[in-house]
Request: fold
Amino acid sequence: MLQYSDKVMEQFKSMKNAGRIENADGIGKVGNPVCGDVMWIYIKVDENEVITDCKFETFGCVAAIATSSLATELVKGKKIDEAKDITNKRIVELLGGLPKEKFHCSVLAEEGIKKAIEDYKNKKAGK
Amino acid sequence: MIEDVIYLDNNATTKIAPEVVEEMLLFLKENYANPSSIYYLAQNIKKHIETAREKAARLLNAEPSEIIFTSGGTEADNMAIKGIAFANEKKGKHIITSSIEHHAVINTCKYLEKHGFEITYIPVDKYGIVDVDLIKKSIKNDTILISIMYVNNEIGTIEPVAEIGKIAREKGVYFHTDAVQAAGKIKIDVKEQNIDLLSISGHKFHGPKGAGALYIRKGIKIDALLHGGHQENNLRAGTENVAGIIGLGKACEIADEDLKNIKMKSEIKRLRDKLEKGILEKIPKIIVNGHPEKRIDNTLNICIKYIEGESILINLDLEGICASSGSACTSGSLEPSHVLLALGLPHEIAHGSLRFSLSKYTKEKEIDKVLEILPVIVQKLRNLSPFWKKGK
Reply:
């Protein structure tokens, strides 16, 4: 079993933004169930392009849940241009580190946010 | 603190029996002499080692001279497989094993492949029972060894060792079985079951860690793994782990008595069945792994669909419950357990595996507590899972 930092465990226990947003403005679906990690990130964006709400649904290990939870917290309240600069490094840093085998989870969380923003932009452009 | 823990990971290791500790202490404290020395102090210890050997032999219906003490199950497996392989390579270089063996066997076979041995990995059915017909058909002129585990550590399925033993004996092929999960749990009879080599590990049945044994049928020659002194009939050099051996002997003695204690045996099964039934009643979308009947009494392995094993385990741990999983995250690789995949389970389902393994120390209220807590954890994680709603 892997050793997780206190911050990882805090996120894992709180899962503050867990759940889905009905009628989300953007959804980022990343990961693969075969590998054991899937994240769906939902965002709600207002007219000023600010992410007013962000939720996640995750199938995966402690690290997958903790990284997606933290990523949603990070981007909530931010403008999308700012939010899209989120990096997996920052996520790992804020979690007080991750076991090496779990770095890919932080990459998934970053990708999830970026895909949700991309989805939002595509939807908007299509309108 | 440790008293409050609900320990349901007895296939990983067991609580050492207090009687075992008691006997070992003497040999950690006062009786420190080297059993190879000639003075009385040492020879007396030697006598105790031989008594431990008799106890280990009795558990398996073997002769004391057929027991070699090792550092545990892994060493016993290595010693058996490499020992037979290197002693018989002029006769042949083909070995038959199964796809669900413990890593101690699988990785030893992989090592031998690098040294020019040919290994046939026999598949199993959906319950984890090895294909005996295929074993028979796979035997060739150069086959020197069949190594099939007695009981699978993850799913608890009991393999048809007596049947395999008979085939091996008829064909003149050596038969080794990794009985680490069987010893102390079911009656083993190496004579009746035609077993040539058999591995056991003390800490899996309330003995100490670092102590195991290999049974080698009289007359069978193997190459030693460790070279050095004359200990263990020149087959296992190194000053004996005296306290460990004494502890293993005591654990074998207790296990032998416990095996006759039908009430104790049926209680473990009753609690395991209660846990299984309770989980199936309270949680939808559960797959029970392993054979419905040919399964060791203490083991319950399930797959909980739509969620992942490690997050279940950590949530259980937060509630003071110890269990295990065959998910990738717990195996230290990206692949889920090779055993679950060999059963034909898809990766995403294997990731959600959970194993509870009980012992004679398991109490009913502990099972009740798990049945109370697990459904809540599963619901919480399923609510989080993107797949759950679709699977409803």
